[in-house]
# Entry
Amino acid sequence: MSIGADDLAWSGNVAAQRDDPASVLRLCRDLIALRTRAFGGRIASYRELPGPPGLWTYRVDDLLIAANFTGEPVTLDVPIGSVLLSTAGATTEGVLDRGTLPPWTGVIARHQPKDAD
# Structure
């Protein structure tokens, strides 16, 4: 989710964000719901994965989390399953087209082992 000059002028209140599927409020609520479903309140450890500068990638159980902190697309070098959540907005469709993460975007996906088809 990128922030531009138009976003800074926006009121940013809960009422304005409640029904907006691409809002920060919705993203936070979806993140909390996913964490509750995936981990049931327990604290899970994570394992950081290698990647190019500007890409932060790690695994928690069967989830893969990747964040591209650069202005360029980055191709992930790990097998990715279905995308569960993205900072790109309301839809996860096409966010990781051919394993490439767009600039300034983060995703949470199912990890897909290399031997799985």
About this structure: The longest strand covers residues 80-86.
